[in-house]
Amino acid sequence: MNPDPADSVLHHFRRWAGEDPGAPAVVSGAAVLDYGELDRGSSRLAGHLRAAGLEPGGAVAIATADRPEAVTALLAVLKAGGAYVLLDPDEPAAARRQLAQAPPFLLLTRRALLAFLDEGSDRRVICLDTEAPQIAARPVETAGVGAPAGGDPAAFVLTGGARARAVRIDHARLLAAHDGWAEVAGFTPEDRHLITARPDLGGFATGWTRALCSGGALVLPDRPSASREELRRLIRDERVSVVHTDPGSAHRLFTAGDGARDPGRTPDPDTWSVRLVTVTGDRLYLDEQTSLHALLRPGARLLNVYGPAETAGVGTWFELPMLAHPVAGPEGLSLLGVPFPGCRVELVGGEVRLTPPDGGGAVATGDLARVREDGLLEFAGRQRDRVVIGRRTLDTYRIESLLRGHPRIGGALVREVPDAALDAASGGKPGEKRHGSARGRLVAYVAPPAHAFADASSGASTEASADAELPDAGAVGRHLADALPAEEIPRTVVRLRALPRDRSGREDRGALPLPVAPGAARAARGSGKYTAAGGDVSPSCAVGCAALPLALIAASLTGILWPGSTDLGAVPSGYANLFFVLYVFEWLAFGFGVVFLLAGRRRTLGQGRGRVLGTAAHLAITYLLVSWWPQDNLYRLAAKQDWPRQAALVYAFNVPLMIAAGIVALYAVRGPRTEASAGS
């Protein structure tokens, strides 16, 4: 049964279309639809849908690259009493999979897309780019696509990720979600809303109501995969006041890509029109929210919104003024805040059970949380992300939050990698015993802060310098040692330019690469790429193998450079052996020193103690190793009473050795740099 217009979002849209029909409703490039045009166009298309035999609650799939046309079509479906399913025309293969999730009664598309989407089925089709839409002869069966409890469905929201699923949203929930948004965000008819989500996802599939049911304008990019520059230009040219986005896109939009601007300090003139940013779809840490908020104009708001597709994208919300005072460790804290109007949160065994805004049945989210002393809800990870190593169930979110406490890490994910995969990647033998369980081990994936890199489309990159600053497995182990037991510390670290995200903007654990084999790691390092560090790519063997021939070369050159310095003919045999062992150690130290000079700088800088001190320590350690071979030989050839030569040797070797030892001591006691001192 078609709901009464007063009980649906259509009532709000029609009210604004009647009060101010000339106001802009949808803006996309050069195309602008006002409320009157949008109302009339959707009504005409609704007539075609009814003529095609669309019944109340029947699903209609919409696939068009023309964004104003997509909005017109979804309103038409609602007016005809159906439920819309938005597809992404940029990804026909994904769209075909999505069609199978919610079999539609009818497909609305354009002729150019028809061959990609409809592979000879008998599904009814209306081609939106023809003057007189053609309707196929026979409908497809719609069994299983009925109305959920509580009313006819208004939309089928397709969740993101590799396996999309259709979530049914009825009219009551869609309207209640809009009303909750209106109360929390205070939308006005003067607002111009930009939604960065792809058309098939919940951010757009239900988010359009925030603009068109409050009298505002919906500003859309020409294509779903718009670049950072295109979106920023859209914000500036169209004077966008409200941005609805996800954490990854928020960083792209508002954080300076070249790292020149100190995040959290300087708002950008291009985004000065924005008064409100809503971020949803994935966890947003408090330090990220603080930095992003500081990049907005004074008085602007930034809301961290938590809400699954089942609740039409609403659940809880948090903004910084809710905190009575600053908190310690913001880099490891994600706050969900308080429930939206009409929503209710219960914690059952730590899991969030979310009651939708229309009062429907509680949704088991699979997400974990805790209530803080100040009453705010704090995110505590996801059940599906926990891993079992041996007999221990490990909370990867806790490890990731602790990793983000390292001053050079901006993003972190931890996953279990099966031993078989590690064997294949590292060249080990199958079944070789490793740290962890028989099934796998923990691998940490770390990335620098979002502001360390320019947008990929700009062509600019500071990859090499940021790579040198990212910690390796040793630094990660030391960072976590005081907070975690040894078995929970990842022994393999993969350093990435950025963490992978799926189509919805959520961090994608399934797309994380395996640690690379040693040969591949060396090749990647030579090309400046991020690679695994520590664990399976330890350079110890390579260092030892390279140092040995250098030691043999030093031994063979000793008699040439310093004739007679190692002559032990006059030394008693017992002591002669001791002195020969000393010479061997000097040769080996020289070999290790040369290898460290050539290969140790990267790891020294990776400890996060600053480029100047790191470089000085690298050279000091090299000198401490290589100097013993020439020093001892020169001393042995110097007469005891040759004071000029003795003084020269002391100042040439002993004084620099003391200085080098002092530099190494300073390097050892100085902790990693904080962000505040990163530019020094």
Task: Please describe the biggest sheet, giving its number of strands, its sense, and whether it closes into a barrel.
Answer: 13 strands, mixed
Report the mean per-residue pLDDT as an integer. 81
Overall, the morphology is: elongated
| Proportion of residues in extended strands | 15-25%
Helix content: 25-40%
Based on helices, strands and strand pairing, what is the structural class?
A: alpha/beta
Instruction: Indicate the radius of gyration in whole angstroms.
Output: 32 Å
Beta strands, count: 25
- Give the low-confidence spans: 134-150, 257-264, 429-438, 453-466, 518-531, 533-539, 673-680
Distance N to C terminus: 68 Å
Oligomer: single chain
Number of helices: 22
Q: In order across it, which strands form the biggest sheet?
A: 2-1-10-9-11-12-13-14-15-19-18-17-16
Task: Provide a short characterization of the protein structure.
With 680 residues, the chain is of the alpha/beta class. 38% of the residues lie in helices and 18% in strands.
Give short descriptive properties of this protein:
disordered C terminus, 13-stranded mixed β-sheet, four-stranded parallel β-sheet, 680 residues
